[in-house]
Specification:
By secondary structure, this protein is an alpha/beta fold. It has helices spanning 20-27, 33-36, 45-54, 97-115, 129-134, 142-150, 175-180, 184-200, 226-240, 251-259, 271-282, 328-341; strands spanning 8-12, 38-43, 60-64, 76-81, 121-124, 156-161, 164-168, 208-211, 245-249, 265-268, 283-286, 291-295, 298-302, 308-311. Strand 8, helix 9 and strand 9 (245-249) form a beta-alpha-beta unit.
Length: 342
């Protein structure tokens, strides 16, 4: 693949006080990523240099003023240097308004460049929602920022780890609000977004399971009416459009069925219904070494006019600045963005 054929990806470092800069540096220490994309860090060059230092990486940091100025060659990490987080203000492991503000500015710049088609896709490092809000940006997370700044009306979060995929009807809201959002039009739209995303990655006839909201899918109304009154009609409408959807299926069995190969994705009704099984599959903690031996999984925002993938974990403030963070999810997010950009 020639230089121009490789997609140009903007990679934001997330909250500079977390593990985002470290996992970005470690990911771009892998030469094979440069064979599939032209990675450009969007953040602060000094922060990336510090991450490379405490991680013991033998890579250079090149500050650039424009994306086109990047070298995109392994051994040197190109950084679109926004210079908005001075090193003397940087506090690892800490929530600060300054760091929250910087994390938003990285994201906004990446979206601006992608909307202008200056870059081919975006990859985001983890942000801290408390810091983001303390910095004056009142969003529930990345997904909502992207929806707002791109003008997207219908979007959804998909978490994917190899053949294990979940797509959310709602995400960062209270459980009570999540139940209120289980409405036929929204469930149907998420099924459609899921179908489109799976076809984009090469699955011609996606098999989509739709999880129930209540225990036993409400047991005929004994444990709630949402499954019969809102979810089942959405599945029927999807089937009428030729979509291979089934459900509602009880949430206590649907993920095992997907893992066994029965489905290509599960549409879930709320945040933890999808996140818990995904992280059980992708996150492996080793008590002996007090480290995460595996942290896989990618977050993809569906329904946007631009490409956005992300790590499937948080800022891990307790380990920030120590050089112990696992970059696996960042590597996978970059790979996914490169695949989608092609």
């Amino acid at each position: 693949m020639t230089r121009k054929q490789r997609p140009l990806l903007g990679i934001t470092i997330g909250d500079p006080g977390g593990i985002g800069p470290e996992i970005a540096a470690k990911a771009l220490d892998q030469p094979d990523l440069y064979e599939i994309c032209r990675p450009l860090i969007i953040g602060d060059a000094d922060i990336m240099a510090d991450a490379a230092r405490f991680s013991g990486l033998k890579i250079g940091i090149a500050a650039v003023d424009t994306p086109k100025a990047g070298r995109f060659s392994h051994g040197t990490v190109d950084v679109l240097d926004l210079k908005n987080m001075p090193m003397d203000k940087l506090q690892y492991k800490t929530v600060t308004p300054e760091q929250g503000r910087a994390s938003f500015e990285y994201i906004a710049k990446a979206i601006e460049l992608a909307m202008a088609k200056t870059i081919d896709g975006t990859v985001t490092g983890p942000i801290n929602k408390a810091a983001l809000n303390a910095g004056g940006y009142h969003y529930a997370g990345h997904t909502e920022i992207y929806g707002d700044l791109t003008g997207a009306k219908d979007f959804a979060m998909m978490l994917t780890d190899q053949g294990f995929r979940v797509v959310h009807v709602s995400t960062h809201v209270s459980l009570a609000e999540a139940c209120r959002r289980v409405k036929t039009p929204r469930v149907l739209r998420v099924i459609e977004l899921t179908r489109d995303a799976l076809q984009q990655v090469g699955i011609e006839r996606p098999r989509i399971a739709v999880a129930g909201l209540n225990p036993h899918c409400g047991e005929g109304g004994l444990f709630g009416a949402e499954d019969d009154e809102e979810i089942a009609p959405a599945v029927a409408k999807a089937q009428a459009k030729g979509i291979g959807a089934q459900g509602p299926i009880p949430a206590d069995t649907v993920f095992s069925k997907m893992k066994g190969g029965m489905f290509d994705a599960v549409v879930v009704m709320y945040h933890d219904q999808g996140h818990i099984p995904m992280k059980l599959v992708g996150f492996h903690y080793d008590e002996k070494t007090d480290s995460w031996g595996r942290m896989s999984g990618v977050n993809v925002t569906l329904g946007l006019p631009i490409i956005r993938t992300s790590v499937d974990h948080g800022t891990a403030f307790d380990r920030a600045g120590e050089g112990r963070a696992n970059p696996q999810s960042m590597v996978e997010a970059i790979r996914m963005a490169a695949q989608l950009a092609k």
